[in-house]
Specification:
This protein has 181 residues and is of the alpha/beta class. The protein has one domain: Dihydrofolate Reductase, subunit A, CATH 3.40.430. 28% of the residues lie in helices and 28% in strands. The protein has 6 helices and 8 strands. The longest helix has 12 residues, at 28-39. The chain is globular and about 40 Å long. It holds the Pfam family RibD_C. It comes from Paractinoplanes ovalisporus.
Length: 181
């Protein structure tokens, strides 16, 4: 069975949206870990908000430069959980139909590598409740944005996690990897 791995950039005060604050921290160590995560994943899952942001950013990037990751993101199989998106324009994107839990359960049962998910909102909360998230990687950045939003997506989610790894980058970013218990 495929694993669903969530990878989320977060500030010290819990901000996850519009992570422009990550740019100064995405150095060699981060690129290596990101490449490891994408190298083990042949599919990507996202909610509508994440799709809207990524589908504009990645196609504009240079695919010939391997350091950008653009070739991966523009060609990997992408699944979007949305009830309003009907005609996705980003290459190799499919909108999940019907019940999200059933759709992701079916995706995980297919042959293949891991499924990577970016962002941490309602889609992740639903999948956590259903026991479908196998790992969560929080990339904790030494930044305060002053407008925490992570807790609003998790207001009805109760979960306990087991720490399975940490990486501390020289620039202060800590990647804490958890597995739901």
């Amino acid at each position: 069975m495929r694993k669903l791995i969530n990878s989320t950039y977060i500030t010290l005060d819990g901000v996850i949206e519009n992570p422009v604050w990550t740019s100064p921290y995405f150095a060699e160590e981060a690129a290596a870990l990101a490449a490891e995560l994408t190298g083990d994943a042949d599919a990507m899952l996202m909610g509508r908000a994440t799709y809207d942001g990524m589908s504009v950013a990645w196609p504009a990037m240079d695919e010939s430069d391997p350091s950008t990751g653009a070739a991966y993101f523009n060609h990997v199989k992408k699944y979007v959980a949305s009830t309003t998106l009907t005609d996705p324009t980003w290459n190799n994107t499919e909108v999940l139909q019907g019940d999200l839990v059933e759709a992701v359960t079916a995706l995980k049962a297919q042959d293949g590598q891991n499924i990577i998910q970016y962002g941490f909102g309602e889609v992740t909360a639903t999948l956590l409740k259903a026991g479908l998230v196998d790992e969560v990687h929080f990339w904790i950045h030494p930044v305060l944005e002053g407008s925490a939003n992570l807790t609003s997506a998790l207001k009805d989610v109760k979960a306990t996690f087991e720490l399975i790894g940490t990486k501390v980058f020289t620039n202060g970013v800590i990647v804490a990897t958890y597995r739901p218990r």
